[in-house]
Model the fold of this input.
Amino acid sequence: YDLHFYITFLFLEFTASLCYLLVFSFNFYHQLFFFFFFQAEDGIRDAQESRGLGDVYKRQVSTQSTGKERGNMVKAAQVRMVTLTVTLMATQGVIPIPVSTTPFTSVINLPTLPIDARYVVAAGHDHSGSFAHQLHVAFSSMVSGACVFTGQPFYCAVSYFNQDDAHLEPVGEGSRVPFCDGCPDNTTLPFDHCVKHPGVVDVGSIVDYPRRHCGQNPISISECIDDVDYLRSSRLFLFRGTEDQLYAPGAVENVAALMAQMMADPSTSIKFVDDQPFKNGSIPLKSAGYDGPGECLRHVLDDHIYPGTASPENWFVFDQTEFGDSRDGEVGFQKTGWVYIPKTCAASANNACRLMVRPDKCSPPSVRAPDVDAFAGYAETNLIVILHPCVGGAVDVGMYPNAVDIAAGKMDVYGQLCKDDKTSNCAGYYVQQSGPHMRVMGKMISRLLGTPNPNPHDNPHPDPHPGFGRQWFAPPRPLSPSPHARPHPHPRPNLEASTTPNPGEKPLLTVSTDPNANAHAMAMPTLSIDRGPGGVATAGCSNTADFSAQFHVAFSSLVKGSC
Done:
């Protein structure tokens, strides 16, 4: 029996060695990578301690092998044989290797990579779209843009508005919005009230929360929300399909309206696509008629983005558990997540790469969100690291009894991950940097950027414009002329036209031509004034400017502009 085992084992190892030599003889570097990767793994192992990027498990050889161990050795050799054969056939174009079948049996620690801190963006759809927007606002010192493929405004899900009275519900154990800011006692808001009833939303009041809640000027609360001045030059891509039955018209527009109040030039910073025939289901892909990932990246990275092909071997499974906080318990994160690292980004610290954060429900080592591989298609060519944190894991229902959506694999954009004894403002806890999902994301981004502390407020600086001069945050991009600037709405008036009324027409205003005549009082006349766009405007300075602005708003049907 022993002799038969060793002959079989040596035959398989010998045959594998021939394949090994074959790879060397053709000098296929990528095949060498595949070979060493699978050779080191020796098949699927039990859970082991996480290693760093590029670190693989060492083979353990026992001098006294049992029958079970000998069987495992033969199986391991067989796995190497099959892997070598499939890899060689695939690299010659005989058969493809789908990304989902790559056996990611090694778990790495998330590394620090050469990422340009000016180009860190987030993206998502529906709940993860709202979370991408939320991450952008709360961590605006690190996150410079977001792509929201349907989502609701920051802090809107838990905010009570005057017109919400008709929709209020009794608060209870099954409430999906367990905490409400401003609701009458023992009541709460219906789930997705900002999604289904966007008409009740007052975006002018929501903006006060990120502007003032954390004690701005200066910020005095740690792990709260970054100064909104960081958002002045940020970028935002919004998408809502014309056939969307979940997000009512106006819901995504409210995100644009909120962000426009905090941006220096919203006409160039915000791109809103609302003319594509898509339902609410996922981020639209090029194969379906609209390249959502490509259009998103082109806008938020403010650059020419070129399509390419992802390399399956550049997907890695990383350990997510090290970013959790024991105080929070189980909050829905899987034990592992995905990260795509272009070869150039991993090769040298001198290669400036960019970062896309795309959180969603996923399950390494086999399942990713449907659109993530489309983003990865742009990653290799354009040096973009794709961080794909995975939720859909366990939730401590004893600690968070209302977290039904978190348990279903969603990001917390409803305030479900809060304990009454954790903070006096439980309703707003989820949008702050200290929220369980937000804190984890901040730590992951900080690791990739190499910044030791995700909370910028521990390092005060004298510069009046926050962020300038910090090594991990670059100044905003210079503003460019708006491509959406409207042409002049009506022809320039002809100043050379005759001031004499037509024959038979009564003059609108009769003025004395006597230069010695005294000024006299008269009734306000009716004049020939263009009432179209740009025809009536107001102006003022200081106090009169305030009045000019309020007059413009109150009489907007007549007044079309103000200075």
